[in-house]
Amino acid sequence: MKIEREKKYLLDEYLFKKLIRKAKYKVGVIQWYLERCVFVKAQRCRLRYTVDGDFSEKWVVAFKSKVFGDFQRLEDEYDVDLKSIDFLKKYPVIAKIRYFLMFSPAEVSIDEFIFLDFPLKIKYLAEIETNEDFEKYEEMFGLKHSVEDFEEYTNFNMAKVSKIAPERIIEKVKAMI
Fold it and tell me: How many other CB atoms sit within 10 Å of the CB of residue 17?
């Protein structure tokens, strides 16, 4: 199990458009939140679907702890192979395009949330994941508005059950890549 250290930042549309021009890579991401995992461990998990510009698809199940200490949390991930996804329609979901601005020594990314059939709290959210000081990257990318309540802006807390079939959500995300 690895420890990740991350901070999140609110963006306005102007800064979002400015920063995505610097993106090195983008990927479509859909995340479902299952109360009881059916794949690896019998506990709450996140099931993430990703698709890139070459339409390479991947499914990963993850287990994350609450945030503790200096913006840290435990994370454990496993690749999974899904044959059917219809069962996902009863679980909360969030969809987004993730733009990667930097991979190393810090991972800096921006999420553009995709409207499904429920209201979104925000449209854009930046994230810095690093073991170094955040300030260097905040300055580099003009990130000034870190979120006060980290838990409020987790994907888990923004996800809602959608009436849109999982297959249609995947099609919608693929169309935006």
Answer: 11
Q: Does 54 or 83 have the greater pLDDT score?
A: 54
Question: SS3 of 152, please?
Answer: helix
* Helices of type H across 58-133: none
Secondary structure of residue 71 in the 3-state scheme: coil
Is the separation of the CB atoms in 106 and 128 below 8 Å? yes
Percentage of residues of the chain with pLDDT beyond 90: 72
**Range 2-176 has CATH code 3.40.50.11060:** no
Q: For 56-92, what is each residue's pLDDT tens digit? A: 999 999 886 566 666 666 667 889 888 899 999 999 9
How crowded is the C-beta side of 107, counted as CA atoms within 13 Å? 12
| Helix (H), strand (E), coil (C) string for 48-68 | EEEEECCCCEEEEEEEECCCE
Domain ranges of the chain: 2-176
33, two tokens: 């939140």
List of residues 6+ apart from 23 with CB closer than 8 A: 99, 100, 101, 110
